[in-house]
Amino acid sequence: MKWDRNKQTRKPIHPGRTNPSKPLVRRSSVFEPGTKPKTLDHVVTWFREREAPCGHCRERDGTISLWFHGRLGRAKAEYLLEKKPVGSYLVRLSLKTWGYTISVKTYTDVKHFLVDVPSGGRYQFLGPKQRQFRSLNELLAFYRYNIIMM
Predict the structure, then answer these.
(1) CA 145 to CA 24: how far, in whole Å?
(2) CB 3.0 to 4.6 Å from 117: which of 19, 24, 38, 99, for a disulfide?
């Protein structure tokens, strides 16, 4: 989305798309039947069209956050974190939901937590009755100082 200061509305930008009014991917919760991403390419497209334009996974100066690793598999995430201190983490795109996976180094191994981004645009860990946040950065900031209870 691109902010148009004159009209005070957001205008979608879809370069090369013949029908920009039709969404390329559906942004829905994993709990809704038939809405799980089919391929990693769908997830990357979702990220590029919905998340990146809003500044998610970027610092205030526009650079990509050091904790964001994009298209990174589970095994590679575990490898990158295995020698890091307990509490170290990275964020990667998830293939299981329209959202992210946060991989966290614990005392014994690396744990992986799914972050769902349902249609309402609230960020939450996958599961019932999870605390919701307005952004991924807000979720990460909260759990830097609070224990993840699943």
Answers:
(1) 37
(2) 99
Over its C-alpha atoms, the chain yields an Rg (Å, rounded) of 16
Q: Rounded distance, CA 111 to CA 21, Å?
A: 39
CB 1 within 8 A of CB 10: yes
The arithmetic mean of pLDDT across residues 95-115, rounded, is 92
How would residue 79 be classed by pLDDT, with cut points 50, 70 and 90?
very high
Q: Is 136 helix (H, G, I), strand (E, B) or coil?
A: helix
Amino acid at 72: L
Own/partner long-range contacts of 139-144 (Cβ < 8 Å, ≥24 apart)? 139/115, 140/67, 140/91, 140/102
- With contact defined as beta carbons under 8 Å apart, do 88 and 78 qualify? no
Tokens 């798309």 belong to 17
What does the alpha-carbon distance between residue 122 and residue 27 come to, in Å, rounded to a whole number? 11
DSSP track, 20-50: TTS-SS----TTSTT-S-SSHHHHHHHIIII
Assigned CATH class of 2-144? alpha beta
